[in-house]
Design goal:
By secondary structure, the chain is mostly helical. The protein has helices spanning 41-48, 63-74, 80-84, 96-114, 130-142, 146-157, 168-184, 190-202, 207-219, 225-243; strands spanning 19-20, 30-31, 250-254, 257-262. Helices cover 45% and strands 5% of the residues. A hairpin with a 2-residue loop joins strand 3 (250-254) and strand 4.
Length: 293
């Protein structure tokens, strides 16, 4: 049985960019055969001779440089069009040879990509469509959430040119690379800059909060600065109570009734709606240690 053709219009005509419409509205579209492409030796040697090129790795944050170089070398064999998905799957019932070539070209290109990634990236290439494989890598490396941008911005702002001018070129390259990586995560927003400033301000005297919230953002990629602001406010409440000598309990008079003890425990779960009276380790709310238990 022939595989289903997913590239058709409502009229039943293949919606394939591998066709040309001759002059005249009533002319039958001419199908352009899809040739079998090869991975040239030049593609491998170009990457091997680039001392700054390294296998793709999330821990190295080298996606901008890696993806740019891969696009350049795939252009050498016209395989870049498969990464972008501009060569659509031919209808096997119309042109079986083009269909086989299209499948083969995708397989070759994915195999080429696998040769230049770390093992941790291989699972994202587990497909027979090069565009899907490429999109998987884009989503993995360009959509990591605001904390990645925050970390990269902090890193680039910490760089200084040394007294020895012989190192200045390398420093400039480093700054350029970091800026590429920052903007690969989408354009930084006001909220991202606010988070950069807050986390930097916490580092000297409240590094435990900075570390805690950095871990939180890694696990909650869509969270914004609100969670960090609330965590800082909670710390203010906690320390104010402690400094007022309320380590044991706070007391209050309520409508003439006997004094009631108020716990000084404050939940560290940044999204807990009622943070007073318990710790993060006892929090049953979403994000708390006891969530779902």
């Amino acid at each position: 049985m022939a595989p289903p053709n997913t590239n058709q219009t409502g009229t039943g005509t293949p919606a394939n960019t591998n066709t040309i419409a001759p002059a005249g509205s009533n002319s039958t579209p001419v199908i352009i055969p899809v040739p079998a492409l090869t991975i040239s030796n030049g593609m491998f040697s170009t990457l091997a001779n680039d001392s700054k090129f390294a296998n793709l790795s999330l821990s190295k944050d080298n996606w901008p440089k890696w993806s740019q170089k891969i696009k350049q070398v795939t252009e050498m064999s016209e395989l870049d069009e498969y990464l972008l998905g501009t060569v659509l799957e031919p209808d096997v019932t119309v042109d079986a040879a083009s269909y086989r070539n299209w499948k083969g070209n995708n397989k070759k290109l994915i195999g080429f990509l696998k040769a230049f990634v770390e093992d941790s990236e291989i699972s994202f290439l587990a497909t027979d469509d090069a565009k899907i494989a490429w999109d998987n890598l884009v989503n993995r490396h360009e959509k990591q959430g605001p904390i990645t941008q925050v970390r990269l911005i902090q890193e680039v702002l910490s760089i200084s040119y040394a007294k020895d001018v012989s190192a200045w070129s390398a420093t400039t390259d480093r700054i350029r690379d970091l800026c590429d990586r920052i903007f690969a995560q989408t354009v930084p927003t006001k909220d991202v800059l606010f988070m950069v400033a807050m986390l930097s301000a916490l580092e000297r005297d409240a590094d435990h909060i900075r570390s805690e919230m950095t871990s939180y953002y890694i696990s909650n990629k869509t969270a914004d600065s609100k969670a960090l602001s609330e965590r800082v406010e909670q710390e203010i409440v906690y320390k104010t109570r402690r400094e007022n000598g309320s380590d044991v309990a706070l007391t209050m008079q309520t409508n003439g009734r006997r004094n009631q003890k108020l716990s000084t425990k404050v939940c560290t779960n940044p999204i807990c709606p009622n943070p007073n009276g318990h710790l993060g380790t006892d929090c049953w709310e979403k994000g708390g240690a006891m969530e779902g238990k």
